[in-house]
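Exercise 7. Predict the joint structure of the components listed below.
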Amino acid sequence: MHILLVEDDPDTAEFICAGLAQHNAQVQHCDNAERAMLSASAHAFDVIIFDRLLPNMDGLDAVRILRASNVTTPIIMLTALSDTADRVTGLEAGADDYLVKPFAFAELYARLKALARRQPLRADTLELVIGELRLNRTSRKVLRAGREIELMPKEYQILEYMMQHPEQLITKTMLLEQVWGFSFDPKTSLVQTHVSRLRNKLDKPFTFDMIKTIRGSGYLLTGSTDG
Amino acid sequence: MVSHYHLKRALLSGGALWAAMLLLLWLLGQLLVWQDKQTQQHEFSEFLSDIENMLEEHGFEQVLQEFELEDEVIWPEHEARAHLADEGWLIAVFEQDKLLFGAETQLTASPTLQWQTVSLGEEGDAELLSATVNLSDGLRIHYWQKQDELHAHKNAFYAQLMYWFALLSLPLMVAAIACVQAKRSRALQALSEQLVQVAHSPDSKRTKVATSNSDIITLSVSINRMLDEISRLHGNLKTMSVGIAHDLKTPLSRISNRLQSMYQDLDDPTRLEGHIDKASNELAQVINTFNNLVRLNAIESGKHIQGFKTFDLSALIDELAQSYLPVFEDSERHFEVSIVPAVHCHGDKDLLGQLICNLLENALEHSQPNAHVWLRLQSHTLSALLQIGDDGPGIPVKDQAKVFDKFYRADISRGRPGNGLGLSIVRAICEVHQAQLCLLDNQPGAVFNIEIPTRQALSN
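Solution:
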């Protein structure tokens, strides 16, 4: 992954760079918006990480300018502002995702992967297939190794989202945002309960588990036994 | 003491009042004088027509007799004026333009009634009413009548009255106004002295005024109300500071302990990982508290209101209920849902979603296994009634009024997880939606009723 990181705080920048280096990602770091905009226009990056509060310029304005100059690289915004209204403003400005500081590195990395690999889902993609798992988006039927699996609406939505991002870490927050549309975190194990029920139906009757738990981070859907 | 400012105010307002009253009195006097003149004019006209009648019925001789002019005298100017001064009237009879008898005078008279002011020497000036009566055979009578004595006296009386009023009332008025102002300023000064004392102990001292001035009493009552409200907010702030301190201190001290343990277990990766996990969880709790505070602040600021839309509340609640059903099942609570379909409301979907989640989380946290938890939505004419309740131990009466306060927890030891902001967020969401939130009394458990205005007209 080739990533542009726009972050003025040296500590946060070092933390992100070190984490990305461990995952063999190639990172270019800028500490101000002007240089970042030049780099973003000149090179092809997979993802841009943009801090919202930068010296001399609101990161939001920089994103607007980039989008206006036809830079389509996926952008994730980092911010200390946690409110929904700010999140909506960020997304409206042209950012693709929004992450509130402080965050776990795993959360950032999961979102980066989701953004970098994001292929626009074509309307005619009727069937999602991962290994022996098939999901038909018209009939909403789910088959594993030819056997039909009955799912509740939320379980179906979780699986559909996971199948769009196979072999990728999916965090609890991502599921809350994507499946429930929540911008807040309920205290209880809402996500765990539904994922656990999904697993009981999807994995229990079969030889290997397709949904893996990444401890302290989230879940991962894999199509093969050793994945 | 009357200050320079008050004296100036008293002088200005006293002067203005004085001038206004003087003008009013003068106008009133003029009106009365005019009325008197009208009366006299009327009588004069009647008198003239009497003379004309007399002339027709009894002849010219009789008229002369009436005016004691049988001797056919002619009064020269000074005699004429003396006669006018003594008798109050004067006559001159002309044939063509020749004076037959009566006054030979400069005084004029015209066919219409007319007032004029003339000088009567020592007698001073006098108001005269005059008129001309044309008779047959070229005869003409000029007649003058002095203003009625009584009326003239009244005139003088009014003038005197004005004079004395003008002389005496100004200082009296200024004094009275200054006195009233001094009295009011004394009460206000007492009030401001009390406020200085209140500043030292705002929670216990209140203002008290000994005055009958209702404005100052109202001011004092309003100040006391404001002080009560400030005290309440101050109390909230104190609770909040203590809450934040407590909610942060506990996880932070645990993190500190974990960091020390990490030093001790540097050689044992398994134990080290355990410490890191625990420390991360504690830190997540601190961050969660801050996120909730920021969110609460944003909701209270009302900035979500501009994004309000009309949406299907029943569908939202149904979706949330379906999401929570397995959570309640797994925690061995009975969850009963009853929703009237297609109830629309005007608001923020995300916020109302959080309101329902927070109340369901609350029910989950504060009820025992096998408890009943219910969620109901009913439709009223202008509102949607949402009820979320449980038959758990409920909230003690003494805590009921405070459960919506920030960081308030009935469980003082804060042994349970959570930060005491969930119900504060619920209240803030209700306030921005102008929804009525109430915790029902005398229930076996905790039952919350929320009445959300539907504004169905908007959805049409």
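Discussion. Helices of chain A lie at 10-22, 33-42, 59-68, 84-92, 105-116, 153-164, 172-180, 190-202.
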